[in-house]
Each structure stands twice: as structure tokens, then as C-alpha cells.
Amino acid sequence: MYNTKYFEPDRRATWLELFFDLIFAVTISDVTHILNSTRDGHLDPLQFWKFVLVFIPLWWIWGSHTMYANRFDADDRKHRLATLLIMFLLIIMSGLIGQRFLARFEVIIVCYVGSKYIIAMMYFVSKYRHKESVGLTTAVGWVTVTGATISLASILVPAPQRYGVFYLGILFDLVAFIFFLPRRLQAIPVHTEHLIERVGLLTIIILGESVSSLSSGLANINWTVERLLIAATGFVMISGIWWVYFDSFHLLTEQQLTTGHSVLYSHFFVFIGLSILASLIRHAILDDMAVSDFRLLSAIGAVCFFIGKQYGYFMERPELRRQLVVNTLAVYVLTGFALLLPGTGYILLGMTTAVICYAFLSLRYLNVPLARHKHPRKGAITGHQP
């Protein structure tokens, strides 16, 4: 393990990881566009489910690679070439998200499975390079291969059963990591600072998609005072979300994580929520969505974002649980009142007010005493104390 970046002092995300995050954000931007089209002011329910179902395999590729890189990234040529190939497969998947998605679903399957097989091979290579991690790398590698093979088998099944088999492979992966691999994963605890930095950086990039939605909403339309006020409200909400998300971020970096599941998996909901909220800002500016649909999408986006944001703190900082529950309920109540307002612009203003109120409620987190659990990385792997 000592020739990896795991033990580097002041470890930071590599330039390749930043490039990988950028590619992933581009694919998520394409996924978010699924929510941009309405017919007679209504969003087809199938569009929403397509958005979620397309999001899942893309996120799981990013999550799987992030978990590997967190523990075993050596930033050597093999790692770089493997990561670049995964990025290319993501680009292919991104190009098929539009009208050709169902017609070319076999290509989606092959790209996803190819990415997972590459990640499995990266684990197997690490097994030979780091003898002390052979149990973890072997177990995770074979779980990854098994889940990918189940998904690959979906090619042999006709639609619509094909989709069920494909997602069964992803479900197998998730269940195995959550319920059967934690003891092995705890033997090499995640690099806390690196994991928190990775999810934080990707959150910043996806927040940028919200700004892009705001900008695209103002493009090629007649600017009115009302639309400019809605755009300003949207920017205030984006800024408030940034404030809410990062203001207490230090409380996670101060905590030594073990598997890292509470942070990594919960960010699936954070990213889903942010993507929905980005689409809502555009619809509010264009005023092209029925209020009933806007309310429903707003509720889903707010619930996903705040549940995803709070879960990591709830699991890793037990002393905050009571306050987390109170603050979350308060913002949900305020959001509920906002959803009763007439017009998409007013609803967006109400949700922005709820976000600002939460920012004030979370101020008490700033003086929480340090509660860091010690399990030195070197000792966790070698069995010796530094």
C-alpha cells in the first residue's frame, strides 16, 4: 500500500480525478435535460423515471471508481489508462441518453459492464501489488465481476424484462457492498479527507449545472422584470444551497470514516436533488410547466437533497442527530408552505426562503466540539501503531 497515494500527507484529488468528475458532470447534464421537455405544460411521468433509471448506472460507475481510487490510486500509467477508458465509455453512454436510449440500450449495457469489468481488473491488479490487501481486493473484485455479469446477461433477455435484469446486477453490487463487504472494507478504512473532497468537488460541479440552467433559461427569451426577479431568486437559491451544503462540511472531514458508505451513497440523493432543482429554475424562468407538476418535482427535489445531505452527518455525528431532525423537519414544513403558493415563481421564492432559513438554523453546528475516532490508516492495514 505504501506506493499508493493513500498515505501521502495532505492528500488531494488528482488532476485525473478532477477530469473524471468533469466528464461525469457532463453526462449528468445530459441526464438532467430529460426533465427539460414538457408537453402542454406537463412532464410525462415516464420522463422522470427515465431520468432516475439513467442516473443510477452512471452514478454507480462514478461511485465504484471513487471507492477504488480512494484506497488504491497509485496514479501510475495503468491507473490512468484504465480511468481514461472508463471516461470514454461514459461519453458514449451520454451520447445515447436522448431519443436513441431505448433503441441502443444494448450499447448502454456494454458500456456500463465494460466500465465495471475495468474497475474489477483494477482491484485484481492491486491484489498483486499490495499483498496486505489481498482479501479486500479479491472479494470486491469478484463482487464487481458478478454484478456486471448479471447486468450483461440482460442482453439475452427481451424488453421489458431486459431492464429488470440489468438493474438487478446493479442492485446485487449495492447490496453486497452494504451488507456483505463492510468487515473487509473496514480493514482498510477510507481516506476521509479525500472522499469528502471528491463528493464536495462533484457537488460544486453539479451546482454549476444549476447556473447553466439559469443562464439557458434567460437565453433567447424576452427579458421582463418578472423573469429577471425569478432568475435572481434562482441564483439566491443556488447560493443558499452552496452555503447549506458546505457550511458544516468540516464536521465530516474531522470524523474518521470506515467504509465511507454513509457519505458516498447518500450523495446519490444529493446529486438527484440538485439535478431536479437545476431543472426547476429553468422551468420557473420559462414558465412552461404546470404548477401541479412544478410542485411535485419541487417536493421530490427538496426531499432528495436534504435527506442526502443530512444522512452522512446523522450516521457519523450522533451528537447532532436531534438537531438534524429538527432542522430538517423545519425546512420541510417551510417547503410545504411554499408549495401552496400560486405560480412557479412564487414557489421558487418560497423554497429559496426555506433554504435561507435552514442556513441560519445550521449556524449552531459551527461550534460543535471535535469528536474524532482514531484508527490510523497505517495501523489499520499493517496491524502496527505509527
The gist of it:
By secondary structure, this protein is mainly alpha-helical.
Detailed description of the structure:
By secondary structure, this protein is mostly helical. The chain has 2 domains: 183 residues, no CATH class; 176 residues, no CATH class. It is 73% helix and 0% strand. Helix 1 crosses helix 8 and helix 5 runs antiparallel to helix 6. The longest helix is centred in the first third of the chain and has 28 residues. It is globular, with a radius of gyration of 21 Å. The C terminus is likely disordered.
Oligomer: single chain
| Overall pLDDT metric | 86
β-strand percent reads: under 5%
Q: How many separate domains make up the residues?
A: 2
- Class computed from helices, strands and strand pairing: mainly alpha
Count the DSSP helices: 16
Quantity of strands, as a count: 0
Task: List SSEs in N-to-C order.
Answer: HHHHHHHHHHHHHHHH
Q: What distance separates the N and C termini?
A: 15 Å
Rg, please? 21 Å
Quick one: overall form?
globular
**Unreliable residue runs:** 372-376, 378-386
Helix content: over 70%
Instruction: Describe the largest sheet.
Output: none
Keywords:
globular, 0% strand, mainly alpha, 2 domains, disordered C terminus, 386 residues
Write the layout of secondary structure elements.
Blueprint (H helix, E strand, L loop, with lengths): L14 H18 L12 H28 L4 H19 L9 H25 L4 H19 L8 H20 L1 H6 L4 H27 L6 H23 L2 H4 L7 H4 L1 H21 L4 H26 L4 H19 L4 H18 L15 H6 L4
